[in-house]
Amino acid sequence: MSTSVGLVFFIGAIGLCVIGIAGIVLSRHLFRMVLALAIAEAGANLLLILAGYRWDAVAPIFTGTAGGQAMVDPVPQAMVLTAIVIGVGVQALALSLVIRIKERYGTLDMQEARQCMQDDLDDAGGVTPSRSRERPAGERPIPAPTVLNSTGGQHD
Amino acid sequence: MTDVSLAVVLPLLGAFVLPLTRHGILRSLGPVIGPILLAACALILFAAWSAYDVPYAVALGSFAPPMGITFYIDDLALLFALAVPLTTLVLWPGESDPAATGRQSLTLLLAGSLTGLALSGDLFNVYVFYELAAVASYGLVVGDGRSPAYVAAFRYLMISALGSVVGLIGIAIIYFKTGTLNLADLSTLSGELADPQGLAAFAMLVIGFGVKAEAFPVNGWVPEVYGAVGKRVAALLAGLASKLAVLVIVRILILVFPHDETRQLLLVLGILGVAVGELAAWQARDIPRMLAWSSIGQLGVVFVAFSLPGKAGVIAGVTVAMHHLVVKSALFLLADRWDRAIESLKGAASTSRIGAALFVLFSLSLLGLPPLPGFWSKFLVLGGLAASASPLQLLAMGTILAGTVIEGAYLLRVVVTFYARPDAAVRVPGQRAGNLLGAGLFALVLLTAAVMINPLWQGLEVLAERAVDTNGYQHTVLGDREAGR
Questions:
Q1: How far is the alpha carbon of A79 from chain B, nearest alpha carbon, in Å?
Q2: Which of A61, B139, B172, B297 is the most exposed place for a label (fewest CB within 10 A)?
Q3: What is the pLDDT confidence band of residue B168, given thresholds at 50, 70 and 90?
């Protein structure tokens, strides 16, 4: 019984980590990256708690009754408390940075914000950008032109 | 007989006291608190080195290992721990604008946590100090609040937090397999970590702590951040913080994962770092990003050096790391006023003769011209690689040599631009006296090391011998417990 429940928890923890890491790496929206970070940290913390968990034990608190009961390992729980607090602080800082980026650059898209940053750095340093900033508008590849035949009709 | 842990506590206390000095009676005390505390830390660490019988271990709170938090003090730890307050003093943000107390507070937090990283003997303590250093560096990167700095800080935060999540999973794997996180205890159990799960845990720890160490997969933040921040902060991060992160990885490698596969992993990451860093530095067209990519390349050399087994690896690695600390911090100090495109700095030598001369000195040392210390550091690495001569190590040797040629190309190109005839239309800024003084101090250290190679070599031999002595480490921390194991 406890092995299948344990398996669910392990799969859940690793799944949360994978979802979070994939979100951070693949996401283009700044706020989604912060949310993915929160999910990934939750997964990692769950994994760390599972490292010390025992299925037939009680919480590691001395309650005054005579000892002898098996207790869950308290060390990973202490570590996870620390990791949760660190994670909350970092996420709060990330959100304040997102707000500032939106104020300064008006965009919440990572590619656009990075492009604006590179442009600002290039301007400040007096570096001419390697690619023209005024790129031609329109789709790529340019759709093939339709050709008129001699009678005025159209065929490709 | 002062406790070495004061060297960690004092800067943290100072960081929390500094905001109180903005108003009221303590206002005159504000600017001097930081330098006084850092000088006190340097004195404490220096006294520990000369007075005590290193190596020894300190159990914080008198909880005996492996249950509690331990600090392990040996020559390697003290060398890096001493470098922290000294370098922070030279790179101290001494401006007196209204945001100065915040900046100084963050710098003290960074100094305290980096010292803790150097002395720590427990894996979770290392993680907490590493996160503290990371958060302090996010604040320093934001700095004055210029717009590009926000984007650079966000990207750095994301990559660093991703690394921390992966590192935490690695710590969880280690706890699953061994049930302990004390480095000495793990060192006695390193046989259990020699399987693929252990290698995975090591790879995750390298990704986690390698963000600050500018290791290969997680170093995308480097050129943006060093381009966007003030160059004194860049000097702190590139020069100091990266070395302490490398020290953490090396301690874990030597004590917990002394296997061939893990050394090969570091070697591969080092080769990739050298190749990518040097080629991208050649492509860079302004000085801060050129120095940033060059920093990635040099840290690749550091990884290659520490991947050599035994004493030779530690000696080579410590030499390259310390040399890079001195040279890269000084180069970033010189780049403080010269953070613009290379072509627009034509004739900089006529506006600042000393600055250009110092730049030439540091470039030559970085290239490895004898008798400067850079030559000895590269020579030790290449000698160690040639000694065992497996195909991967020969590839590393070729990459480092090719990287040196490319370094010559981009560094000397800058030197030639400096000494060219200045354009009449473009005004090249001169150097600030504070930066020149700092760079001059680093140059003095470099030249002293060049002259005193022999005593330094003997000291390094002793340091390396104690660093690779894992049995001695276990015995010092755990006492005679393992006799009864």
A1: 7
A2: A61
A3: very high
Whether the CB of B427 is below 8 Å from some CB of chain A: the reply is no
Yes or no: say if B165 and A20 are a contact pair by the CB < 8 Å rule.
yes
Cβ-contact B145, A104 below 8 angstroms: no
| Cis, bond preceding B288 (omega within 30 deg of 0) | no
Cα gap B77→B247, rounded to integer Å: 8
Mean pLDDT of B53-74: 82
Res. B272: pLDDT tops 90: yes
Between chains, do A100 and B150 touch, taking CB under 8 Å as contact?
Answer: yes
Tell me if B286 and A24 make a contact (CB, 8 A cut-off).
no
- Find chain B residues with C-beta within 8 A of A127's C-beta: 285-286, 340-341
Mutate to test the interface with A, among B146, B147, B339, B343 (most CBs of A within 10 A): B147
Of A44, A98, A104, the CB nearest to B165: A44
Q: Does B394 touch chain A (CB under 8 A)?
A: no
Which DSSP state fits B241? I
Chain-chain contact of A126 with B169 (C-beta, under 8 angstroms): no
> Which residue among B157, B227, B340 places its CB closest to the CB of A94?
B157
Q: What are the φ/ψ torsions at residue A76 (nearest 5 degrees)? A: -65, -30
Question: ipTM, 2 decimals?
Answer: 0.90
Handedness of CA B194, B199, B201, B207 (dihedral sign): positive
DSSP-assigned letters across all residues of A21-72: HHHHHH--BHHHHHHHHHHHHHHHHHHHHHHT--TT-B-S---SS-S-S-B-
Cross-chain Cβ contact A48/B161 below 8 Å: no
Q: What is the pTM of this model?
A: 0.91
Q: CB of B236 within 8 A of CB of B91?
A: yes
- CA–CA separation, B298 vs B197, rounded Å? 30
- Beta strand A154-155 with B56-59 is unpaired
Torsion angle of the four alpha carbons B364, B365, B368, B374, in this order, in degrees rounded to the nearest 10: 180
User: Taking CB atoms and an 8 Å limit, are A40 and B138 in contact across chains?
Assistant: no
